[in-house]
Design a protein that fits this description.
alpha+beta, six-stranded antiparallel beta sheet, globular, 19 strands
């Protein structure tokens, strides 16, 4: 998939280096959609780039003895430079004072090679949203944007980290920098990792963390804060809608994607795509929103018959770290490719602006380990050592890194094999401003509602939010009565009413519990989890997994739990037996 990869060559001879680089490139290149550039072998480093042809090229960027391989984007770069050239220019100017990275507005991961100093620096963006894995194998540093790329590195023998299992099966994702492989880590947010080729040692430097954000002093007016946050959001969308590629929106019935659709500047037609089962609220609300401006709006149905296709292979491209049952949207691959190259993603809107991680006044202004554990579906022991978080004034910071980054962000990985996604809610200035505000301003969506109504009023005043069925302008008492009515409708008719839409609709845009009990889902899951050749029993009890599956078939809703175990089995088969991987990656 699009990304960077490489390794320090150590004492490997030229033929070994070339063969390893070819294996590595094949493992992370999706056939027919991606193209590898390189490898380039110089100064004790072999490096390569895989791309989908959308972002500006010329790999790598060079200046004297320094070169930069970059995956992702910088939104404040000079127009005459590529993203890699921008990072290189700023690195040369700053020397090895890594503080300059804190000022970048971007989502990226990069390998910075200094031949003269004989050092390799791996760099991640401030929030760590562009994935890059690293590890030291036989004294050589290796890195790859795709976890499976490590199977191509000389001397690497995959061993599953058994401590990852309770995290994955409880929280639904891994925590910290852990991966499925022992000895391989995810790059930490806001960090530079430096490997000295002469000495073979590693050094880490954190150039930015949450404690750099300073809270605003004195009284803060809600409406003024909402207007400023709205201005920053619009500026972020403008920066991410530059006309160097076709930009569109993955438009749901929620609040976040609607704001991005409204914020795209000008009156030009905006391509938009919505997916969901026919007759669901999301699809109908999205259609109302799309009608407010020139657009091409395409709806891709998800049904019991088509939801399963391509999901097994998608586990490979999401590093085995994202629940098989949550891979909705891959049914729309062909439509996405026809409509646009870059998707504006509503990731983080309800989290950052909407305060979805806040839980009343007891969680304000402090790190609350018990609250964080509940959000991760486990007990405090699941969190591990939280000492470094306890001096911060928000539980949000922990959950952004440990939940949003390690779960929600992984869901975009499959998309990146054939298009790019941009996340305007993660803009540097917007993050800095919103998290400088007091928690009570964001709780229960106060700031977010004020922003949306002040900045995009015609998109929110009368059009319902799909998840509630009513507009965000409704007062509390009316909302409560409507929720009770909706709950009654769901029990009586298995459908719900939505303000502004005629008739009753399906509440959810998928129905995985039912679809798993039907073919082809039922047969596929049974064949995987009850097979005598299954690999997961080496790590977790077969009887427990089969019991979960059969209880689901008998009517319990174990779709999430079954999906996590199915994901693990598929990943094991992909790693150890090269099954369920596209042809090119098995070369």
């Amino acid at each position: 998939m699009p990304g960077i990869a490489g390794f320090t060559t150590g004492r490997l001879d030229g033929d070994e280096v070339r063969r390893a680089a070819q294996r590595l490139a094949a493992l992370i290149t999706r056939p027919g959609l991606n193209r590898p550039e390189g490898p380039v072998v110089e100064g004790g480093v072999a490096a390569l780039q895989v791309h989908n042809g959308i972002l500006a090229g010329r790999y790598p960027a060079h200046s004297g003895s320094r070169s930069v391989w970059l995956d992702g984007e910088l939104y404040d770069r000079r127009p005459e430079r590529t993203d890699a050239e921008e990072l290189l220019a700023r690195w040369v100017e700053a020397g090895d004072d890594w503080g300059f990275l804190a000022g970048l507005d971007g989502v990226y991961a990069a390998a910075l090679v200094d031949d003269e100093a004989q050092r390799v620096h791996l760099v991640g963006d401030r929030l760590g949203m562009r994935v890059l894995y690293w590890g030291v194998v036989d004294g050589r540093l290796g890195w790859s944007s795709q976890l499976g790329g490590f199977l191509g590195l000389p001397g690497f023998s995959p061993q599953i980290d058994r401590d990852a299992l309770p995290e994955f099966f409880t929280a639904g994702h891994l925590l910290g920098e852990r991966t499925w492989f022992r000895g391989v880590q995810l790059m930490a947010p806001g960090t530079v990792l430096t490997f000295d080729l002469r000495r073979g040692d590693l050094a880490r430097h954190r150039y930015w963390w949450w404690d750099h954000i300073r809270p605003q002093q004195g009284r803060v007016d809600l409406q003024e804060a909402a207007r400023e946050a709205g201005r920053l959001l619009q500026a972020s969308v403008v920066a991410r809608s530059r006309p160097d590629a076709r930009v569109g929106v993955s438009l749901s019935g929620g609040l976040d994607s609607r704001a991005l659709f409204a914020a795209i500047p000008g009156d030009r037609a905006v391509p938009a795509l919505t997916f969901g089962q026919p007759g669901c609220v999301d699809v109908r609300v999205a259609a109302r929103v799309a009608g407010l401006r020139p657009r091409e709006h395409v709806v891709v149905p998800i049904t019991a018959r088509n939801w399963l296709a391509d999901r097994a292979e998608a586990v490979w491209w999401t590093d085995g770290l994202f629940n098989f049952m949550s891979l909705h949207g891959i049914e729309a691959t062909a439509a996405y490719r026809r409509l646009f190259d870059i998707s504006l993603d509503g990731f983080g809107g309800d989290l950052i602006l909407g305060g979805m991680y806040l839980n009343g006044a007891t969680t304000f202004g402090r790190f609350d380990a018990a609250h964080a554990a509940v959000k991760l579906r486990g007990g405090p022991e699941l969190l591990g050592d939280t000492t470094s978080w306890e001096g911060l004034d928000k539980t949000d910071y922990f959950l952004v890194e440990q939940h949003a980054r390690r779960l929600n962000n992984v869901g975009t990985r499959y998309l990146q094999t054939y298009m790019e996604d941009r996340k305007p809610f993660l803009a540097r200035d917007l993050i800095e401003f919103v998290y400088s505000l007091p928690d009570e301003m964001r709780v229960k969506g106060r700031l977010y509602r004020a922003l949306l109504l002040a900045t995009f009023p015609r998109y929110y005043r009368s059009i319902a939010w799909a998840s509630t069925g009513y507009p965000i302008t409704w007062p509390f008492g009316v909302r409560r009565a409507w929720r009770e009515l909706r709950s009654l409708e769901a029990r009586l008719f298995s459908r719900v009413g939505t303000v502004g839409l005629w008739g009753l609709d399906l509440r959810d845009y998928t129905d995985y519990p039912a679809w798993l009990r039907q073919e082809p889902g039922r047969g596929f899951v049974t064949a995987m989890l009850e097979s005598p050749d299954a690999l997961y029993p080496q790590y977790t009890a077969r009887d427990e997994v089969v019991r979960l599956w059969r209880a689901h078939l008998d009517g319990a809703d174990n779709s999430r739990e079954v999906g996590l175990r199915l994901t693990f089995e598929l990943w094991l088969q992909q790693v150890f037996n090269a099954r369920f991987r596209e042809e090119g990656t098995r070369a």
